Amino acid sequence: MPHRRFTVLVVDDTALFRQRIIRLLNDQHIHLIFQARNFEEAISCIQNATVNLVLLDISMPGKSGIQLLKLIKSRYAAIKVWIISNHADEYYKQVCISAGADHFFDKSLDFEEIEHKLRTIGNEMQTTEIAK
């Protein structure tokens, strides 16, 4: 039986930020990475691929990341969602956590913590691969 690969979807309308996150993921040997610029692209990806983790910004053109978070958690409850946003005040954090976000990061201040969490995922994947 083939083992299941860990996949990440990065949803942010800023290409530079997506590239930065993708570099971090690649450094952690997570190579099944999808990216989307908005709600519609993200939903299309989720419907057409197995996604384990969504790294999601709140502000995007069209529908917001909060709307996407709510949809993911209502239809695809197994997908983990990390909010990574510049809207890091307590109001947005509470809204996102209440809607089911697994983590909430301030895009400007918490990048080292994001790196640490991604490193943890990378290490867990390597340990799983070695055990097989």
Written account of the structure:
It is globular and about 30 Å long. Strands 2-1-3-4-5 form a five-stranded parallel beta sheet, sandwiched between helices. The model has no long low-confidence stretch (mean pLDDT 88). The chain has 132 residues and is of the alpha/beta class. Helices cover 48% and strands 18% of the residues.
Which key phrases capture this entry?
132 residues, alpha/beta, 5 strands, 5 helices, five-stranded parallel β-sheet
Tell me, rounded to a whole number, the average pLDDT: 88
Shape: globular
The percent range for helix content is 40-55%
Radius of gyration: 14 Å
Strand and helix map with partners:
Elements: E1 7-11, H1 15-27, E2 32-36, H2 39-48, E3 53-56, H3 65-75, E4 80-85, H4 90-98, E5 103-106, H5 111-131
Describe what is shown at a glance:
By secondary structure, the chain is α/β, with parallel strands linked by helices. The protein has helices spanning 15-27, 39-48, 65-75, 90-98, 111-131, and strands at residues 7-11, 32-36, 53-56, 80-85, 103-106.
